[in-house]
Design brief:
Blueprint (H helix, E strand, L loop, with lengths): L1 E5 L6 E10 L11 E3 L7 E2 L20 E3 L1 E10 L3 E2 L4 E2 L2 E17 L8 E16 L3 E14 L5 E10 L1
Parallel strand pairs: 4-12
Antiparallel strand pairs: 1-2, 2-6, 3-5, 6-9, 7-9, 8-9, 9-10, 10-11, 11-12
Length: 166
């Protein structure tokens, strides 16, 4: 469930994005688990740029590092106003705007068994630059970073750079 609200700042909003899941499978069966971790973007991509919003993403942790047969996840995201540009680039390649966002997420897995429970938190930012190539093709260059902290472990970090083509 996602719920959002406008802020007093023009073109800015705050969102609460929640998800939960339960698998009836055996904890020893890897197919019965949900897996979390990473921004999820590729270096060159064609999919959605804001994949940190997906329920199975957890930027700052390695891809699929955190697993569990059940989970609860809540993310707070602040989408800041876009920065619009008049003249950045050349006629064949220019940037029209940058959209920054800040986020933090809480995740708990294996809620039904204290021996296997994992609690983690992350925080990060992503800026999406809208590029226009040859005056017609739109692309997005995303740059971001995040850190994650899990009980009993050191802080881990992740850096994102991804180019969405069309």
């Amino acid at each position: 469930m996602d719920i959002g609200a406008l802020t007093p700042i023009d073109h800015s909003s705050i969102w609460l994005r929640t998800a939960a899941g339960y698998s009836r499978g055996n904890r020893d069966d890897s197919f019965a688990s949900f897996y979390f971790g990473g921004f999820g973007n590729n270096y060159v991509d064609h999919q959605e740029v804001k994949r940190y919003r997906d329920y199975d993403r957890f930027p700052g942790a390695e891809i699929d590092e955190i697993a569990g047969t059940n989970f609860a996840r809540a993310m707070v995201e602040w989408t800041l106003p876009p920065l619009r540009f008049r003249r950045i680039g050349i006629p064949k390649l220019y940037c029209t705007y940058a959209r920054p966002a800040l986020f933090t997420t809480g995740l708990a897995t294996n809620l039904d068994d204290d021996a296997f429970r994992r609690n983690a938190m992350d925080w990060g930012a992503q800026v999406d630059f809208r590029l226009v190539i040859f005056s017609a093709l739109e692309s997005t260059l995303s740059i971001g970073g995040a850190a994650a902290k899990e009980e009993g472990r050191d802080v881990e970090s992740e850096f994102l750079i991804s180019l969405k083509i069309m």
